[in-house]
Design a protein that fits this description.
Helices cover 23% and strands 23% of the residues. It is of the alpha+beta class. It starts with 20 loop residues before the first strand and ends in a 6-residue tail after the last strand.
C-alpha cells in the first residue's frame, strides 16, 4: 500500500543514482494459442518517477497480434520522459531494460526500437543523454551449482547458490557484452539466473558497477521483502501487460485502445 500511495519502501545505499537517471522497462505479451485472429498483443512500458528508482508509472498499448516490436515506443518513451521531468531534473542517463526479445531479434531492436528512443529524447531537447539498452532473458537452460557441499557460496538450506552470483566468462558470448546474474534466493528447485545482454552502452558503466546496481535494485521490488529474480522495471512491465490482458478479457479488443496507468496501481 505504501508503494501504491507514492511512498518509498527502501532505497539503494550507494551513489549510483546521484547522476540524474531515468529507468525504463518494456515487455510485450502475445495472445495465447487458440485465440481469435483479431486478438491484439499487449505492449507495456514503465518508467521511474523518482531519483531512487523505486516509484514507477506506466502505459499500455494494444498492437497487431504476435508482433514483438513495440510499434508506438516513441510515444511511450516521450510520455515517460515528460512525466519524469515534472518532479525531477532532466536525466543525463537513460537505462532501457527490454524483456521478451530473442537473440534473432536483436538487430530489429537496434534498427526499429532504438531510433524511437533516441527520437523521443531529441524531441524533448535531451540531445546529450546517454543511453544503455539492455535485454533481459529468462528462457534459457543454464543453471549453476556449488562446486562442493562446503562451498562458501552455497545456501545450506536450499542447496542453491546465494544471491549475487555473477557468471561473465566461460559460457558467455565471446565478443558481446553479456553476463548471467543470480539475484534471488531459490526456495524450491534449482534457481534460474537472468541473462543480461547489453546492446548499447553509451554510459560506459564499469561491468562491476552495472552488475551491482542491477543486483541491489532487485531488492526494491515493492511486492517482496527479499530480492527478486528479475530487474524490477521489467517485472513491473510484465505485470502491466497482464493488467492489459484483463482489459481484453472484458471484451475490449479494439487495437486503438490506449490505457494510462498512473502510479503503481498494477501491483
Amino acid at each position: 500500500m505504501n508503494a501504491r500511495l507514492g511512498g518509498t519502501n527502501q532505497r539503494i545505499a550507494d551513489n549510483f543514482m546521484t547522476t540524474p537517471t531515468i529507468i525504463f522497462g518494456a515487455d510485450v505479451t502475445h495472445p495465447a494459442p487458440g485465440s481469435m485472429n483479431d486478438t491484439p498483443s499487449v505492449a507495456a512500458v514503465v518508467y521511474s518517477m523518482d531519483k531512487e528508482g523505486f516509484q514507477y508509472s506506466g502505459d499500455i498499448r494494444y498492437q497487431t497480434g504476435r508482433v514483438e516490436l513495440i510499434q508506438e515506443l516513441e510515444v511511450l518513451v516521450t510520455q515517460g520522459l515528460r512525466e519524469h521531468m515534472v518532479k525531477n531534473p532532466k536525466p543525463q542517463r537513460l537505462f532501457f531494460f527490454r524483456d521478451g526479445v530473442s537473440e534473432g531479434q536483436f538487430d530489429q531492436v537496434r534498427t526499429f526500437e532504438l531510433p524511437q528512443i533516441k527520437n523521443a529524447c531529441t524531441k524533448l531537447g535531451l540531445n546529450g543523454i546517454k543511453i544503455s539498452l539492455i535485454i533481459t532473458q529468462k528462457r534459457h537452460h543454464n543453471r549453476f551449482s556449488a562446486l562442493s557441499n562446503d562451498d562458501q557460496y552455497k545456501d545450506t538450506t536450499s542447496g542453491n547458490l546465494l544471491p549475487g552470483i555473477v557468471v561473465e566468462t566461460g559460457i558467455t558470448h565471446p565478443t558481446d557484452y553479456d553476463f548471467f546474474l543470480l539475484t534471488h534466493a531459490g526456495i524450491k528447485g534449482v534457481s534460474r539466473p537472468c541473462y543480461y545482454r547489453i546492446l548499447l552502452d553509451e554510459n560506459k558503466i564499469h561491468p562491476d558497477q552495472l552488475q551491482t546496481f542491477i543486483y541491489h535494485s532487485c531488492y526494491l521490488f515493492a511486492r517482496c521483502l527479499r530480492s527478486v529474480s528479475l530487474f524490477p522495471a521489467v517485472y513491473y512491465a510484465d505485470l502491466l501487460c497482464e493488467r492489459g490482458r484483463k482489459y481484453l478479457s472484458e471484451g475490449k479488443k479494439d487495437t486503438t485502445i490506449k490505457k494510462k496507468i498512473g502510479g503503481m496501481f498494477w501491483l
